[in-house]
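Here's my example:
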Amino acid sequence: MTILIAGAGYLGTEIARQARATHTVITLTKSGDDHSEACDLSCPTQVATLSQKHPTPDLIIHCASSGRGGAEAYRAVFIEGSQNLLRAFPTSQLLLTSSTSVYHQTDGSAVDENSPTQPLRETSKLLLEAEKIVLASGGTVARLAGLYGPNRSVILRKFLDHSALIEESGQRILNQIHRIDAASACLHLATQNLSGIYNISDNEPITQLECYQRLATHFQKPLPPTGEKNTSRKRAWTHKKVLNHKLRNTGWSPTFPSYFDALDSLI
């Protein structure tokens, strides 16, 4: 197959690495770095030009980043980007990487793909708008939990630099997915032509307290201090357990079923 990866950043680079073993891969970035073509997904002209330069790809994986921007960046990258890709490549299968931040639950309940989505943050509301556009085209939405991997683990970094804080009782649930597993899940869904919504999370969500307790034991360091919950988080404060049963029932399984299966490789 020919796969167009729109956004060869932290996740997209790993998707490309895995896909090149068996597929033809074209990668895009906004700046055109690292052997990728330059393309601003929010620009209809630039995206349309791609369709003149390349044969129609079988699959498009939209995993571009908002660049830590706010609502304006989310609208440009996710909504306008998805619309432009669908317009330029109407016969290609499109997979959009979204986020489990669209689940607003704060009571510790388990959520699956049928759970209500009523986020408070404007950025998460915009993700839902982009999801609807992709789903209406018969495409796929991959809702990713917190992404971590080589050189990127917020939890580990904060623990080691002593900036970590256990929020109140520490019972807030952390939902994560290793970059290798996020990439393999996206490829699995795309190449199997599985449309609809899928949660991409590991098998073992963990409470914040248990996570820091295990890190403290592993590194023989004290627990972080306790404090108030951080309600100013960019994607809003939530407390829920993300289930990945639907994805696993398609035949996919993670290399790292839990965060602590990957810890040694992160160190």
Summary: Residues 2-152+177-203+241-257 form a domain with the Rossmann fold fold (CATH 3.40.50.720). The radius of gyration is 19 Å. The chain has one domain: 2-152+177-203+241-257.
